[in-house]
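Protocol step 4 of 5: obtain the predicted structure for the target chain.
Materials: sequence only (see below). No template structures provided, no constraints applied. The aim of this step is simply to have a reference model before the mutagenesis design in step 5. Sequence pasted as it appears in the construct record:
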Amino acid sequence: MPKLTKTAVETLASADKSLYLWDSTLAGFGIKVLPSGKRRYVVKYRHGGGRSGQQRWYQVGTHGTITLDQARDTARQVLAAVGRGEDPQASKQGFREAPTVAELWQRFETEHLSSRKPKTITNYKQVWRLHIAQQLAQKKVADVTRDDIYRLHRKVSHAPYQANRTLAVLSKMFNLAERWNIRADGTNPCRHVEKYKETARKRYLSSEEISTLGKSMRQGLISQEETPHMIGGIQLLLLTGARVSEILGAQWDWIDWERRILNLPDSKTGAKPIYLSEPAIDILKHLKSLPSADTNPYVIAGRNKGKPLDNLRKPWGRIQARAGRSGIRIHDLRHTAASIGVSQGMSLPVISRLLGHTQASTTQRYAHVGTDPALEAANKIGAVVAEALEIPNE
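Step 4 output (structure tokens):
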């Protein structure tokens, strides 16, 4: 049994069945020649106690893809592991069968994400598609390191908010990987990866800006570039301080006209009331008088029968353009409603109740505040907004 050489490996002729040539200097290391002519380096060893141990075959690699010297070095490492009582082939098989990050995402999507709110599902899927999948999808879950997470997080550093959301999604995925025994306990690679500092952007519209935008809304109605539902939706956002999804998803059956409350059965923060000022009620009465209200259950009706308006981004962009403004986010209307409340001398607990904040500490402070103060606050905000927008009384 000679020492394996490159010449011996390349001149060994193939036959009808597999042939083996073993190395004289490294016991168990050899090359297997297949009938097809392919040559594969292998290591044969016994695991679990000498001659009585279970025989194992470890495939090192194919000649041409790796060199003889590289194969011999790998074989030495395999045999050294065997000497330490390890089973390299079982470890290799286990690694092949171990789930990838893509497989972890599939289980995460099925068992965890499916119970979340639709907007959360959309956001998580976007984070996966844009940031995680490209970097980690094919990597084994057990092999992801903190350095992998750090590099991915840093790659999105130009958008701190998105980078931190990506980190949060990954952290949740790896926490569940530990619970599902896909990764060892306490090894979440997201730990100690610091989040980027996020600068909260708060833009408050002045009375002059609200007035200018109100004029642009009326122009849009006259020119029929905007529909009454588009304008009504934007006005309600400013009057109530509600979230866009809350107004666009509102249904007529949820309105308590007598108590002047829009009762949301669900929202980002769960079930909550939206308090309706007199101007808000006037807008709702106008929308209720439109033909669409007879066939569409949604307050802000869309173009498709029985469906709400999808979003307000395009009409809001046109309204800003006509007003000679730019860069005002539609979410800034919510901030503006709160700022008007503060300027009218309202307490923070009342404003918190009005906007539907649900942090535990805040909830404890304003839990005793009844409906009447919140409705009074809504009326004060409504009066200021209505004057600036020149909303007529019904």
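Step 4 remarks: Confidence is low (pLDDT under 50) at residues 360-371. The chain has 16 helices and seven strands.
Proceed to step 5.
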